[in-house]
Structure formats: structure tokens, C-alpha cells
Amino acid sequence: MALGSFACPIRSEINTRFQPKLPNTRYNRNVAILEFPTARKLVIDTFLAHRSTPEIELIPLIDASGRVLAQSATADRDYQPFDRSVRDGFAIRSIDLPGELRVVGEVQAGRVFAGDVGPGQAVEIMTGAPVPAGADQIVMVEHAEFDAGIMRTTRPPCPGEFINYKGCESKSGTEVLSAGIRLNYSSIAVLATIGQENVPVFRKPKVAILATGDEIVPVGSQPEPHQIRDSNSYSIAAQVLRAGGIPHILPVAKDNLAQTRALIEQALDYDLVLLSGGVSAGKYDFVEPVLAALGAEFFFDGVLIQPGKPLVFGRVRDKLYFGLPGNPASTMVTFELFARPAIELLAGQSHSHLPIVEAKLTVPFRHRTGLTRFLPAVLSSARANVTPVAWQGSGDVVAQARANCFLIADPNRESWQAADYIQVLLQ
Ligand code: AMP
Ligand code: MG
To answer: pLDDT tens digit string along 209-250?
Structure first.
């Protein structure tokens, strides 16, 4: 990857101009602002306690990738189902090695050799073929000379070499996939192997997306100079899809109480409500007053992270909701950290993990302590090097799109040298 072209100019210090001030004008002054790990644990615990088992649907295997398995899958027979050669070569008796053996026949995949392999004998065998009775080792074709019906090898005896015995991978009736996993191409291969043409999966949660803001106009319109196109509804929808939910985008709510309330009420028909914007301390931030008027509980009113500090989480009329801050990067980061586990758990997944790795910084890096920061960065896969991307703060969608990960700045550490390891959240 051409790192330099993505990451120029490299900025190694985060401008504290973007440090949010502790607001004292926020609507829910008495509701806690939590540290990142506490807030994430609260979200995960709340969804685990709140969710009910989703309905189950039976779908064709070809459509099952990315879905959550609803019932554990068991082996319909032993795997391997027979003693199977894993190399092209010769099936022999290990006590005969090294030596010269008479080749008495061949067996290809999908066939069975009728006789036994006797003393001094070999049977030519192909990968995937059943090992003939009597043989207990395969000599690879590359390790043998074969001429006029005789094979010669210098290989030492090694009983069991290149044979996968019946049942060595899993026994008939044992669990091969547990319920609650998200199916990927390897688990799909397991389902195909055990003959599950149709797969029981959990119904996907339906997620309402409600952007707010007087300045926000639809993507298809030509904005006035002071207006902004609605990118959040679409980035959130993309993230909902990736998390395993079905997104439903509602019309953008203007910054007034009546319209915000009417649209939040519509959003309550869905399994989860994701609001964007209108949760800061501004005069026209109406999301929290409307939620309060609808009888909402507020579980937290901010998290000590940047971007995304004004994030709100709570319950209204038996539905859980997130008020995601409106700045595009804040919306994306808070989604990944909090809404994604919520959707994964509502979708029936048994676990939700953040994909965090450590990578080596290419440049020195500093930030102001106190907040956990999730900053756009480029991870170069070849050497696991990470470079912060220059950005203009959490409204900078273009810089965000140049990144392929978030660098995680520990709230208790101020500086890192080039070549220090730092945590990275994969995108
Ligand atoms: P707010 O959280 O409502 O104060 O919005 C913070 C910033 O994010 C403002 O500059 C908004 O214009 C911008 N913003 C809010 N909602 C959206 C949206 N749906 N799409 C793009 N930008 C947005
Ligand atoms: Mg707004």
C-alpha cells in the first residue's frame, strides 16, 4: 500500500483545538459521563439483559453467509469419514521402510481398493482416496522412484504419516459449530460438509436511523452554501448492514420539538433506534428533551472519548436507543464502539468483540490525556506499521475515508516515540 500518498502531511501531534470542553450546559447534567471501558461494558450488559431470543428462519445455505446460526450444528458422521490419504503417493506398511516395494494396484479418490497391502507391497494412491487395509503410511510421490512395477524409497518408517484417520477431526454426533456464531466462508464449508442445505438462522434486527439538523439536506439535493448533505444516514446504514441488521432510514428531523418527536415515535417501531446529531449542548439540540418528554431513561450522557464524547444511551418505551453525535467521524466511531455490539447481540450473536491489534507507529505521536482517542490512521499490512492521517477534526469525512483503521490513544499516556507499539482498532 502506498502509505505516503494516503498520509500526507503526516501529523504526529493531535491539535488540542479539538479537545471538547466539559459542557456545563448539557441537558442531562445529572446523568453520568463514563470512561470508555465502563460505557462499553454497560452497553453490552444492557443488551444481553434486554434481548429476547430472535425468531428463527430456515434459509438456503447459499444465502447464509454473514447470518447468525440459530442452532448448533453436529457432525452427521465421523470426519474424516474414512482413513484418507492426504498426499499423492504410495500406501505402504511402515515396517517395510526404507526399501523396494512391489506396486500391486492403484486407488484414486472416489474409489476403494479391493485387496490388502501385504508385506513388501505398495498401492499407488491419490489425495483423498481411502487408504487400503494393511497400509499405515503414505510415501509421497516426490519421495519415491517408480519403475517397472517397483517403487523405491529412502523414507524412514513413520506410522500414520499423511493419513487422516476416520473420526480424527470430529466424531459423529459431536458439535461442529455452536449457535450464536456469525457464519463466514469457513463455517459455511462445515455446513456444506455435513449436508445442511438449509440453515436455521436468527431474524435480523431492524434498525431505525434518524438524522437530525436544520442544515441537513437529502443526498440527491443541491445544498445551499450553508447546508450539508446527509452523510450520516448512509454511513450508519452501511455500518448496520455490516453488523448484521436491516437499516431503515427515516426522513431527517428538523431541529424542532414537534418534528423530532413525531419521527422518534416512528423510530420506536423498530428493534433499535439510532439517532444522529442534536445531542450536544447547543440551543437547538432537541433530541434529549424530546426523549425525556417521551419518558426515556438515560443510562449515560457522554463517554470520555474523542470523537464522540456527547454520545447518549438509554431506553424509551421498551426500546434501547443511542443518540450518536452528528459529526460524521463521531457518528462512525461511536457506532463501531457501541451500536455495533448492540446490533450483533440483538442479532443473536453470543459474543461481540472489538477487533483491536497492536501496531508500530511510523512517527512520534502525542495527545492530551484524559480522553481515549480513536483517530484515523493507515495500517500498512506488510509490516503492521501505523501512521496517523492528517484530519481537520470529526467533521472531516474525506480524511476518515483515507484511513483504514483507528489508532487508539490511551487516556493516561501522553506521548509515543516512533517505533513504539500502539493499539489499533481495525475497520
Ligand atoms: P450536531 O451533533 O447536531 O451538533 O452536529 C454536529 C456537526 O455534524 C454539525 O456540523 C452538523 O452539520 C454535522 N452533521 C450532523 N448531522 C449530519 C448528517 N446527517 N450528515 C452530515 N453531517 C451532519
Ligand atoms: Mg444538529
So the answer is: 999 999 999 999 999 999 999 999 999 999 999 999 999 999
Question: Ligand 1 atom closest to Cα of 310?
Answer: 2
Give the residue among 129, 120, 128, 109 at the shortest CA–CA distance from 153: 120
Phi, psi of 238 (to 5 degrees): -65, -40
The side-by-side arrangement of strands in the sheet containing 312-316 is: 246-249, 206-211, 272-276, 319-324, 312-316, 297-300
Reference 303, options 37, 18, 25, 50; nearest CA is: 37
Of ligand 1's listed atoms, the one at least distance from the Cα of 252 is 19
- DSSP assignment of 310-355 equals T-EEEEETTEEEEEE-SSHHHHHHHIIIIIHHHHHHHTT-S-----
Give the ligand 1 atom nearest the CA of 230.
Answer: 20
For residue 311, the ligand closest to its alpha carbon is: 1
Contact 182, 68 (CB under 8 A): yes
Q: Is 23 in the pocket of ligand 1 (CB under 6 A)?
A: no
331 lines ligand 1 (CB under 6 A): no
CA 147 to chain centre: 54
pLDDT digits (tens, 9 = 90+) for 297-356: 999 999 999 999 999 999 999 999 999 999 999 999 999 999 999 999 999 999 999 999
Probe target for ligand 1 pocket from 212, 219, 249, 276, with the most ligand atoms within 8 Å of CB: 276
In this structure, what is the dihedral angle of CA atoms 367, 370, 374, 375, given to the nearest 10 degrees? -20
Point out the ligand 1 atom lying closest to the alpha carbon of residue 255.
3
Ligand nearest to the CA of 209: 1
Q: Distance between the two ends of the chain, CA-based, in angstroms?
A: 16
> Coil, strand, or helix at residue 242?
helix
Query: From ligand 1's centre to the CA of 286, what distance in Å?
Result: 13
Q: How far apart are CA 257 and CA 261, in angstroms?
A: 6
Nearest to 415 by CA among 365, 362, 377: 365
397 CB burial (10 A radius; 0-12, 13-18, 19+)? middle
Report the pLDDT averaged over residues 347-370.
Answer: 96
Q: 345-382 as b/e, with b when 16 or more CB fall inside 10 Å?
A: bbbbbeebeeeeeebbbbbebebbeebbbbbbbbbbee
